[in-house]
Amino acid sequence: MRTFRPPAGRTFFCPDLLLLMMLAHDLRKVAAFLQTAWPDAPLNLFADWWEHDGLHFHKGVISFHTLFTMIGSPRSI
What we know:
By secondary structure, this protein is an alpha+beta fold. The protein has 3 helices and 2 strands; from the N terminus they run H-E-H-E-H.
């Protein structure tokens, strides 16, 4: 088993389990804060394969619009 090493940069996490509805809400609040503070910041998207084979890799740069689409609802997450 590999030890998790998060990608370089800012990482946010919650040590407690959350309902998916609460997670979606909280992610939108964090994303809105980041968009307000750094509207032109590049957002790096990573593929997370940690539970499958221990890998994570860069999938590209996304916009805030794309991020909000990804976290817009519990279903989209």
